[in-house]
Amino acid sequence: xxxxxxxxxxxxxxxxxxxxxxxxxxxxEGEEAEECRRLLRCASERHQNLYRLAMTGGGIDxxxxxxxxxxxxxxxxxxxxxxxxxxxxxxxxxxxxxxxxELFDLVNHPxxxxxxxxxxxEAEECRRLLRCASERHQNLYRLAMTGGGIDxxxxxxxxxxxxxxxxxxxxxxxxxxxxxxxxxxxxxxxxELFDLVNHPxxxxxxxxxxxxxxxxxxxxxxxxxxxxxxxxxxxxxxxxHT
Length: 242
Known about the structure:
Layout: H1 18-28, H2 33-55, H3 61-74, H4 79-85, H5 98-101, H6 123-145, H7 151-164, H8 169-175, E1 181-185, H9 188-191, E2 217-224, E3 228-234
Parallel strand pairs: 1-2
Antiparallel strand pairs: 2-3
Helix pairs in contact: 1-2
């Protein structure tokens, strides 16, 4: 988090530089100690310079992301952005803030020493996809609330077709599609009726329901407060694959 900007911002320091690679290669090839120290100083100075650039808005990642957003907004196809953003970042590093380590007396209390935090590869991409999935889900939710869902429309067409005695190839195909995953949520308002902190005995797994396909699953979930999500997952014993 860089604090030189209003409300802060984040930026990435790319630690894999030509200078750091030269230092690692010198170690692997058994260069003289003095040469390795010289290359380490060069790599450290380069890293410090990249760090300062990131702090003052001169990093590359946020600039590229901004160009990407603007290109999508304007509907422009950029060969430059395609090439740059397709580059794989095979080494991703991060550091636990030194200020956190200084809170402990590690000399007299070595039991406080830990491996620090951790993160998975391409965390930013996972967050982006989660935001896209959440926005899509919210949009589907709004459509369902305002009569734009698909299930009741299809059911209505099915009822009308039976009433009129019509044979619809479209409905046959659509209604024969298996919905192997059926999910539903216990309303959050019901959970808020209980004081789950002082009365944890009121916590339950919520409701449940069966699958709508012979080889599918029925998943009922309940968000219980801030620290728990309960699931009911059901399937048919008659299906050997579930």
